[in-house]
Amino acid sequence: MSGQTLYDKLWNQHLVKQRDDGTALIYIDRQLLHEVTSPQAFEGLRLAKRKPWRLDANLATPDHNVPTTLKERAEGNSGIKDPVSLIQVQTLDDNCVEYGIEEFKINDPRQGIVHVVGPEQGATLPGMTVVCGDSHTATHGAFGALAHGIGTSEVEHVLATQCLLAQKMKNMQVRVEGELGLGVTAKDVVLAIIGEIGTAGGTGYAIEFAGSAIASLSMEGRMTVCNMAIEAGARVGLIAVDDTTIDYLAERPFAPTAEQWEAAVADWRKLVSDDDATFDKVVTLKAEDIEPQVSWGTSPEMVTGISGQVPDPKAALDETVQRSHTRALEYMGLHANQKITDIKLDKVFIGSCTNSRIEDLREAAKVAQGNKVADTIKLAMVVPGSGLVKRQAEAEGLDKIFIDAGFEWREPGCSMCLAMNADKLGAGEHCASTSNRNFEGRQGYGGRTHLVSPAMAAAAAIAGHFVDVRSLSANDATHAQEA
Amino acid sequence: MKKFTRFEGVVAPLDRANVDTDLIIPKQFLKSIKRTGFGVNLFDELRYLDEGQPGQDCSNRPLNPDFVLNQPRFKGAEVLLARRNFGCGSSREHAPWALEDFGFKVVIAPSFADIFYNNAFKNGILLITLSEEEVDRLFAGVDANEGYQLDIDLEHQRVITPGGETLEFEVDAFRKHCLLNGLDDIGITLQDEDAIRTFEQKHKDARPWLFRQPA
User: Fold this and answer.
1) Cα A278 from chain centroid (whole Å)
2) Is B200 helix (H, G, I), strand (E, B) or coil?
3) Best interface-test mutation with A: which of B86, B172, B212 has the largest number of A CBs within 10 A?
4) Which domains are assigned to chain B?
5) Does residue A306 sit in the same domain as residue A287?
6) Residue A463: helix, strand or coil by DSSP?
7) One domain for residues A313 and A325
8) How do residues A327-381 score in pLDDT, each as one tens digit?
9) Are residues A347 and A440 in the same domain?
10) What CA–CA distances, in Å, run from A333 to A310, A432, A447, A468?
C-alpha cells in the first residue's frame, strides 16, 4: 500500500463516520466567525432551538465591514456610519455575548482580518481542521491544518454539531523548485501558479504546495500562497509542517504550553506527505522562471510577468476564452499587446488577508522609504491585517515611512479588498492591489483591480504606473553603496 | 427546505465562463442579516445600469436591456444555463440565496466551483453538470427557440429537451436524497450525536492541545 499524503492524514484524523452514500462526517477543531456570513447561522440555531456544540472551538472578530480611519474607529461600533454595516457588526457582538463565544471586538488590539488573527494567536494549529464562512480560510493550510471556506448553512451546521458533511477531495501537489529571484515573493509564486493551472485547475482537489522554493518561504509567505489556493479553484491549500512552522507557533497565546508543547510538536512533525504517497495530479514550476506578477484582467488567471504584455484575445485557444479575454479588456480599459509597465494607476491598496502581515508591510516600506507617491495617484493606502500587526509596524517605524512617502496609514480590516466599508474604487479607476480577487466590481462599482505583491504595489504607487521592482532594488542597492 | 419535484422550466442563457459570486450578488448586499430578499439584486451589476444600494427600491432603476434576465422571452425562467466554473470566488451563500429568491431552481453548466456547489444544494438548488458539447447544444437550442423549456427530472437524473433528447447527469446520492425529500442536514447529522461524542473524546485524549484550556 502506498503512503498517505498530508491531506489523507488530516482527513483520517478527523473522520467521525464514513457513510455508504460517499459522504463523511468530519470533526471540526476550530471555527472562525466574522460578521458577514454568521448572522443567518446564529438565527438558524435560534429558530431550531439549538445550542453551539462546543464554545471554545469558536473565535470571532469583525473584519469585513469595519471602517479603517482612526477617527471613525475611535468611536467603536458607533463610528460605523453605514447603518446596515453597523447592524451587522452589532449582531456579531450580540450573538457572541448571547452564546458565550470569544470575540475580539472592533477596538480590541487583537481584532483584525480573521485569517491574520487566527494564526497570529496560535488559534490555528497544525493538525487542526479549521473552517470559516470565508473562502480565504485556505490560508490556514500553511500550518499543515485542513482548512477551507464554507457557506453560512455549514457555519450553522458546525456550530450545532461540531462536524461538517464532506466528501474527500482528490490530491494535487504543486511543486515549486529552485530559488526565487530577488524581488520575487510568495504572492508572485501563487499568481504564477494560478496563471499556470487556471482558476478552475484545482477544483475538486486539495492542493499541497511543496518543493524547495515553498520550503524556503516564511510562515507569512506560506500563508499568502495557501490563501490564494481558492483562486486556483481549490478550497484547500496545504504546506507540510517543518521547523519554520513550529518556530512560528512557539509562545502564541492559544498554542500549547509546557509538557503539551513537546507532545504536540512530536505529533506535528508527522504532518508531511509520506515519501511514497501518490497524488492524483502533480504540477511543477521552476522558481527561476517566476518574475514579479501583475494581473491584467478580471479573473486571477489573467496574469502575466511584469516584463510581459496584455494578451491579444484573438490568440486564445478556444472561443469561450476569447470571449472572456475580450470582455475583460473592455472592462479593464486595456488593449491587446499593451505593455504591463504602461498601465497607469489611480489608487494603491496594500492590505487584505493575502498581504497585510508584518513582513508584507516591511517589504512595501523598503520600497517606499525615502520616496514619494506619484502626484497622479489619488489614494495610496496601507491597511494592516490586525491591531497587533499595526502595533508591530509602528514599533518598527514603518508607519512613518509610509506617511512620509504619502501613503495613508489605516486601522485593521478587510477594507478595499472587497469594499464593504467606505474604502473603494470609483468607476474606471485602476488599482494596484495586494488583495486576491480582480473580479468585476470587486473593489468598487466599475473599479479595475490589478493583483500584485506588496513591493510591486509600493513601487507602482511611486512611479504612478507598474514598474519592475527588481530594477528599483538594483538602484536602491547602488544608492546604499554610494552612501 | 422545499422538496425538489420534477418540472418543466424556461431556460435563461448566461453565456459567460467563470461567473463569480461577486457577479451573482455584489458585496454591498451582503450586509443584510437575513436570508431572503436578495433576488432583486441578483446579477445587480449586469442587470441594472446604475450602482445598486442595499434596501433600495429597484423598481425604478434603469435596466440593462441587453442583459438576458431583462428580456421578456426569459421572464419567469427557472433554469439558468451558463459556461464553465460557475460560482467561483467567495463562499457567500448569498449567491444561492439570490438565485433561489429570484426563482431559479436549477443551474446547468460544464463545471461548478466547489464551495458554491455545496451552498447551492443546501438551499434546494440543483446544479447539473453536463459536458461542454451538451451545454453548447442547449445554448443553441435556447437561441433558436423562443420559450425553450427543459424538463428537469432529478429522480431519474436526466434533462429532457423539447426535441426529446435525454441528457443524463450525475449527482451524489446524499445530496439527491436531501433535495428530493427537502431534508435539513443538521437534523440528519444529529442522529449521529453519539458517534460524534465518542470521536470527540478519543480525539481529545489523543491531542488535548486541540481543546483549548479555559483561561
Assistant:
1) 28
2) helix
3) B212
4) 7-210 (3.20.19.10)
5) no
6) helix
7) yes
8) 999 999 999 999 999 999 999 999 999 999 999 999 999 999 999 999 999 999 9
9) yes
10) 11, 15, 11, 22
Same domain, A300 and A420: yes
Residues A57 and A202 both lie in one domain: yes
Binding-face residues of B in 90-149 toward A, CB within 8 A: 90-93, 96, 111-115, 118-119, 122-123
Which residues of chain B make contact with A156, given a CB cutoff of 8 A?
A: 186
pTM for this prediction: 0.96
The answer on pLDDT for A66 being more than 90 is yes
Q: Structural domain of residue A4, as residue ranges?
A: 1-291
Considering the domain architecture, whether residues A220 and A358 belong to the same structural domain is answered as no
Provide CB contacts within 8 A for A471, sequence distance 6+. none
Pairwise CA distance, residues A410 & A415, whole Å: 9
- Closest-CA residue in chain A for B119? A151
A chain contacts of residue B203, beta-carbon cutoff 8 Å: 13-14, 27
State the average pLDDT over residues A285-296: 98
Which of A291, A316, A348 delimits the end of a domain? Answer: A291
ipTM confidence? 0.94
What would the grid cell of residue A382 be?
496601507
Q: Quick check: B27 and A267 CB within 8 A?
A: no
Q: Considering A291, A323, A353, which residue would you say is the last residue of a domain?
A: A291
